[in-house]
Amino acid sequence: MIIGKVIEIWRYPVKSMAGGQLDECTVGERGIPGDRGWALRDEDAKEIRGAKKFPVLMQCAARYLEEPGGRATPPAEITLPDGSRIRSDDPKASARLSELIGKRVTLHPLRPAADTEHYRRTVPLDAPELRDIMGRLPDEPLPDISTFPKDVIEEILAFTSPRGTYFDAFSLHLLTTAWLDDLSAKNAAARFDRRRFRPNFLIEPEPRRTGKVELEWCGRELRVGDMTAKIEMPVVRCSMTTQPQADLPKDPSVLRTIVRDSDQNVGVYASVASPGRVRVGDAVEFL
């Protein structure tokens, strides 16, 4: 049963920086090759961090200089907010990013999962920390992390990402235009642009529908092009959705609307059940 089609494919070479669109990709066991292939480590906190702590990263953009293909992550070209560019493998890259952020950071490609100290969380994910990184006001509810699968909870409590990746929790993020339209109807003054939510696959439902249609997919498998994805759970949203990037202004009302009218979620996480090729225009269907 066809339920939609892929209208955009996105990859983000550096965690928390703007990425770029692809016409097609071959999805592997760990998602789109090169997605979140680089990340910054806060050398004072001794942990991997992104725009939840360093929102200026969202005003940077990154693109690969060669297509990822092997086990090593290729270098990316980073465009800074002032328009200057630097390669991720440039010895000066970490210093330039440290100057931009105002904190001592180093830029790292993915490391093996066995390098546990690289991925280890040093600041406990307790209620104050969760409220900070998720951007919740004092009178707003905190996300319920107990809704994550037990093995994922154990991983993200001990590490800043599933080891061997720089993902927050799962390797794929799917989002429909229907959910964005639903949010726009709740707050017409805000721009619920898909760039605020950083999906891998933007999907247009078919037949045209409104509302949070992805919620119907949770727990099921979808065929997306030649790839099969297992839809895991809704994506709880954080402070990054409010930050300025490119032509999008800072807008706290985006997150206030999501918390109030969307149960704190937008889109769904997925894991790869069966790798395969995906192209813009490919059908999305229930198995």
Could you please describe the fold and organization of this structure?
The protein has 287 residues and is of the alpha+beta class. The chain is built from six helices and 16 strands. The longest helix is centred in the middle third of the chain and has 10 residues, at 177-186. The chain is globular and about 50 Å long. The model has no long low-confidence stretch (mean pLDDT 97).
Task: For the structure shown, list the relevant keywords.
about 290 residues; 3-stranded antiparallel β-sheet; single chain; 6 helices; alpha+beta; globular; about 15% helix
Topology, number of strands = 16
- Name the average pLDDT: 97
Proportion of helical residues: 10-25%
Helices and strands: which structural class? alpha+beta
Biggest β-sheet, characterized? Answer: 7 strands, mixed, barrel
Number of helices: 6
Tell me the fraction of residues in β-strands, as a range.
25-35%
Low-confidence stretches: none
- CA radius of gyration is 18 Å
The SSE string, one letter per element, is: EEEEEEEEHEHHHEHEEEHEEE
Distance between the termini: 7 Å
Shape: globular
Strand arrangement, major sheet: 1-11-10-14-13-12-16
Brief write-up:
With 287 residues, this protein is of the alpha+beta class. The chain has helices at residues 93-101, 116-119, 127-134, 150-158, 177-186, 253-261; strands spanning 2-11, 20-22, 24-27, 38-42, 47-49, 61-64, 76-79, 85-87, 105-109, 172-176, 201-205, 221-224, 227-236, 265-274, 276-279, 283-286. The longest helix has 10 residues, at 177-186.
What's the SSE blueprint?
Layout: E1 2-11, E2 20-22, E3 24-27, E4 38-42, E5 47-49, E6 61-64, E7 76-79, E8 85-87, H1 93-101, E9 105-109, H2 116-119, H3 127-134, H4 150-158, E10 172-176, H5 177-186, E11 201-205, E12 221-224, E13 227-236, H6 253-261, E14 265-274, E15 276-279, E16 283-286
Parallel strand pairs: 10-11
Antiparallel strand pairs: 1-2, 1-11, 1-16, 3-15, 4-5, 4-9, 6-7, 7-8, 10-14, 12-13, 12-16, 13-14
